[in-house]
Amino acid sequence: MKTVVTFGTYDLFHVGHLNILRRAKDLGDRLVVGVSSDELNFRKKQLRPTYPIDHRLAIVESIRYVDEVFVEEALELKRQYLLYHHADILVMGDDWEGRFDEFSDICRVVYLPRTVGISSTEVKVRIRGVA
Ligand code: C2G
After folding, report:
1. Whether the CB of 16 sits within 6 Å of ligand 1
2. I want to staple 11 with a disulfide (CB 3.0 to 4.6 A). Which of 7, 49, 73, 115 is the partner?
3. If you take atom 4 of ligand 1, which residue's CA is the nearest one?
4. Ligand 1 geometric centre to CA of 10 (Å)
5. Nearest CA residue ID for atom 24, ligand 1
6. Is 22 exposed, middle or buried (0-12, 13-18, 19+ CB in 10 A)?
7. pLDDT for 52-68, tens place per residue?
8. pLDDT grade for 110, boundaries at 50, 70 and 90
9. What is the dihedral of CA 4, 65, 68, 24, to 10 degrees?
């Protein structure tokens, strides 16, 4: 039984999110997703997500590739989360390339290429343009 763990905000859920979750699940048997809390997202990006944590959790949890979700409260707790969930593999998008190599002592660290041409930020900009 191989457990894959990945993390993200997953605001305005889009096909780039779906692709990485599908490819993450393909690497193992069980996919556990840490969804960033509203406060963590604010610390990371100086922005509140459009959808609050309970909405984002409900959406990510309903994706067929996802077996379990939890709230990621702090970037500094990654090691604890990986150990707690018995991660065999940590998957991140390649926008985070190299940033989590320190965890290669407890699991395999894999960076997958991002889906080109879509992001939550770009969706917001596009919607603002037509409003
Ligand atoms: N992603 C992707 N392609 C896109 C957009 C996002 O593959 N076009 C991936 C990101 O690389 C990330 C995941 O989808 O692995 C979630 O993206 P975000 O919600 O933007 O996640 P982020 O806020 O970067 O959170 O501890 C790390 C963070 O929690 C990651």
Report:
1. yes
2. 49
3. 16
4. 7
5. 8
6. middle
7. 999 999 999 999 999 99
8. very high
9. 20
